[in-house]
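re: that chain from earlier
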Amino acid sequence: MNSGKPKVALFVTCLADTMRPNVAFAAARLLESAGCEVVVPATQTCCGQPAYNSGAKNASRAIAEQVIQVFEAFDYVVAPSGSCAGMIKVHYAELFPDDPGWRLRQEDLASRTFELTQFLIDVMDWKPTSASFPAKVAYHDSCSGLRELGIKAQPRALLSEIAELELKPLSGEEACCGFGGTFCIKYPDISTAIVADKTRSIAMSGAEVLLAGDLGCLMNMAGKLSRENSKIRCFHIAEVLAGLADGEGI
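^ sequence. v structure.
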């Protein structure tokens, strides 16, 4: 029986699945609160971004085909990650230049794929009504979400509804954290210098908690803060919005 609710497939992401499942649970809770029927396809895999970033076009196309097949039956696909959503919405188009059939299927999926905060605000017009998080918070804009998907106002609009949360200005909030997927592996010295600038800005903001919408960025900054013996806790924005940000964070 059709519930009348939009049927949303949650793209869990590799990092949430292997490193921080709480983010996926938080995302599912938020989507359900927004009035969606949430499905987590069991056969989903990686979006293919690591292979794509490494120049393995054939491998990334094979992954893209599998993703399209798994997710094309849903009203929407939502990922708690700007980088994964950006891969599907923006970069899949480059993998099917001479195949009109697959290109149409790719374009259709891209039109229904969204990053989590983008979907909650722009599609569902939803905001939290009872969440509370008593802390001074800084928010980092991930490169993929900001530059590929235009995500800037959406997370801040959601955070503005959280009781007792004080959003602190962050110098260089749009600057890269230095992670960049495989960039941090190929150029570790440059990556370390970039994230050091970022953690310096976070410390200067006076924030007690760092939030971001991409686990890759967040884990990179959390790792550096930990090595600096900082007491700043790190959470994915979904965890705060869903009331699941407990303990020490990432």
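The first strand starts at residue 7 and ends at 10.
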